[in-house]
Design a protein that fits this description.
alpha+beta; four-stranded antiparallel β-sheet; 10 strands; about 40% helix; disordered N terminus
Length: about 325
């Protein structure tokens, strides 16, 4: 069965612990295969579109090893990117959220996040290692020349399908297990070997075809494109540019040419929270980063991030992070991130 994360569905494993479907001696050494080891995320100014370091126009592909247990707060906030994200969970358990819902990915599982899909991820455990391997590539890497037959026939039907947000893959399904094996095998290609670029494109193309066969029945169910995706990004960008200031709901709604009522509806449908809740969460995330990366006084951090007085900042921060701002600073500035 193919699950597309356009629907509100949570899949959890019935066992008490997170299963690991890998052989113990089959761990990918990231340092041997020129993967970028990352434990933070960067965005374009005023946006929530992710910056992808090393992404080149003549070779729009990067392989990365994401250590979510070393991210500040053990999560990646809501963001999007034009590139397709093909991933495999090496260890730990990761929760993916999109406008359509959420799903859990234990070690040994994986999936594909479609182009320009809003998503956020968080580690389910506060103690275990959480390592995710990612192939991130622009659709043109497989499609070739714009308007060509390959792109029109095989690539565009997926990246342009609004009903396809995320394609999850689990090893208890025989066909999905084969796709997961191909995803992992592609990480073993070395950039130093002859013909690396052609071999990589061939490997990802084969994976793409396998995915196409799995999702063919879903592709036939055409859905009208929702403008909510564009509207929520406009309002998120407005908040990211003005979070240090007081933001009213009328101002926020006007940024996306919406009524206040429509503003609340779009936030609820896309991010599953109110605009006020998102603004507070974003300000707290900004405060977390400032506490971890600067030596600004705690009181100044609260004011700069739009969280007002020190007493209010301390109260909402403890509710969010389960510790005081000073305790949070000591934890992350002393950690080996």
């Amino acid at each position: 069965m193919v699950y597309l994360w356009h629907f509100c569905v949570t899949i959890e494993w019935k066992t008490g612990s997170t299963p690991d479907f890998r052989a113990q001696n089959d761990i990918i050494r990231w340092d041997e295969y020129q993967m970028k080891n990352i434990h933070s995320i960067e965005f374009y100014t005023g946006s929530r579109e992710e910056v992808l370091p090393g992404f080149a126009n003549d070779f729009p592909y990067i392989a990365s090893r994401s250590e979510l247990d070393r991210y500040i707060g053990r999560f990646v906030p809501w963001h999007w990117h034009k590139a397709v994200e093909l991933f495999y969970m090496e260890s730990g358990c990761l929760e993916y959220n999109t406008p359509g819902g959420k799903i859990l990915f234990p070690a040994g599982s994986g999936g594909l996040v479609n182009s320009n899909v809003l998503h956020m991820t968080k580690a389910k455990s506060r103690t275990e290692r959480n390592i995710q391997l990612l192939h991130i590539f622009d659709a043109s890497f497989l499609a070739g020349e714009q308007g060509g037959r390959i792109g029109e026939k095989y690539i565009a039907p997926v990246v342009m399908a609004s009903q396809i947000e995320l394609i999850p893959l689990f090893p208890d399904d025989a066909e999905e297990e084969q796709i997961l094996k191909h995803i992992r095998a592609a990480f073993r290609l070395s950039g130093d070997e002859f013909g690396y670029e052609i071999k990589l494109r061939a490997a990802l193309s084969e994976i793409w075809l396998m995915l196409l066969e799995r999702i063919a029945p879903i592709q036939e169910k055409k859905e009208k494109y929702s403008r909510n995706n564009d509207k929520i990004k406009l309002m998120m960008t407005f908040i990211h540019e003005h979070y240090q200031e007081k933001i009213s709901i009328p101002e926020l709604a006007a940024a996306a040419y919406l009524s206040e009522r429509e503003c609340f509806r779009v936030f609820r449908e896309c991010l599953h929270m109110t605009p006020v809740e998102y603004m507070k969460t974003y300000r707290l995330q900004a405060a977390c980063r400032m506490l971890a990366e600067s030596r600004e006084p705690v009181t100044a951090v609260g004011h700069v991030c739009g969280l007002g007085s020190s007493s209010y900042f301390g109260k909402v921060f403890r509710e969010y992070a389960h510790c005081t701002p000073s305790e949070y600073r000591r934890k992350w500035q002393n950690s080996d991130r």
